[in-house]
Amino acid sequence: MILRTGCALLALTTATPALAQTPSRSELADLVRAQAAEIAALKARLDRIESGQQALVQAAPASAATASSTTPPIQVAQANTTPRTTTPFAPQLAPPGPADRNVAQAIAARDNPSGVTTEWGSGLPVFHSADGIYTFKPRGRILADVSSTFGSRSDARNLTTTGMRALRLGLEGGVGPHFFYQFEADFSENEVDVVTAFMGWRDRIRPGIDYDVRAGHLFNDRGFEGSTGSDSTPFLERTTVATAIIPQRGFYGIGIMPRLFWKTGHASLTVTGDRVDGTQTVSDGRTVLGRAHWNPIKTDDSVLHVGLWAFDESLSPAATTLTRNTVIGGRFNGGLRVSTGPLIGGTGTTGYGVELGGYRGPAWLMVEAGRRDARLDAGRPDFTSKAWSVSSGFFLTGDLPPYNPRLGSFGQPKVLKPTFEGGSGAIELTVRYESIDYTDLVTGGEGWAGTLGVNWYLNSFTRVQVNGIHWNTDNRTGAITGRDDGETVSARVAVTF
């Protein structure tokens, strides 16, 4: 700063001969005042930069996400040395996008503008305006599957099929540190299906306690795998708890979701109507859903996860069918399901479940269980669905499981040695047992499945998955009744950006 002031004086005396010869007292006073103002402005700018660096340290590891081509790499590296226990996002996760950042990360991005910038984190860039106010990111996912079933006593189940589990395009962004939005549409069935579509507001109640409120077409916050996106599940298909103990409207509904976050957990409450549709001639159904998770143990390489959730729904007069055909051996074999049999005249359902698990080093374990009670009209008795699962995984490459302590779910991993940089990627072995029981109904079936899998994460947004499933079903209605078992081998190539 002194050097800059001296240079300015030298330049002024050189460029102004009159001053260089005999400067008057008033001219010298004006010069001193001008230099004092410049020094004050430089000091204020330095203070802003230092406060921004502190915000980045508090928000690590997402400081890497707010780095741009003009941000000094040394500053980013320093921010990433923050201990894992102080961050709301685990360091083994890819940096969150504009709609998933917390308040500290959003403020850090706003308060450190350096012109129009672009950051590359997970496949596609995040754009920032010159003043740091506006952020924008394209997003999407491509999940391509192949599945082959054999060993069934029915040839109708011994199929080899292909399918797109997800084919999505969307965007997300924010205005300032508080307002954010996200939109995605899915094209996997050659039809346009609106999935996530919401606007939100986030803020801090006090240090260590944040909140956000989302409104729009919302993804359920329900159970561990039920709250994990299709691009982040450790198996090709979610557990039977996530696919069977669920509101009749499915994974999405239009409504509002406030969420509260603290250092060791979060809680959410969702109130929605039906999912996006074109029916406005009858009232929507109503679903109230709550979930909370807690990490009583949270260290550099260990987490204990405890979760509870519940929902209650009142069905729309236009949606009284409660028939369920639950996936048990892979999504892309339509004949391989566990069925309730035809069931109409539903008025509502109530469901609840528990989650218990965590990870230590490269190994993780999760147990989930749930129950759903469905109410029928005309004085008929309710019926109960039950499901449970035990899942586990181990990273041979030493990577930590991609557990998100902020949301209590899995996210996109930050691979230690990406294959595109000459590394081995991250290699994970997985195993799961799951069960579904609809036998409370006279027409209801039951089934279970055991799965062995391997996941190869080439980098934070590209993966290859293979699952080998031994399944067993006992349906009382449908094209294939009685006990049956067999094997399904499925594979997936996935890119998320």
Automatic annotation (TrEMBL):
Residues 1-20 form the signal peptide. The keyword Transcription does not apply. Transmembrane segments: none annotated. InterPro entries: Porin_dom_sf, Porin_O/P. Keywords: Signal. The keyword NAD does not apply. This is Porin. It comes from Sphingomonas aliaeris. The lineage of its organism: Bacteria, Pseudomonadati, Pseudomonadota, Alphaproteobacteria, Sphingomonadales.
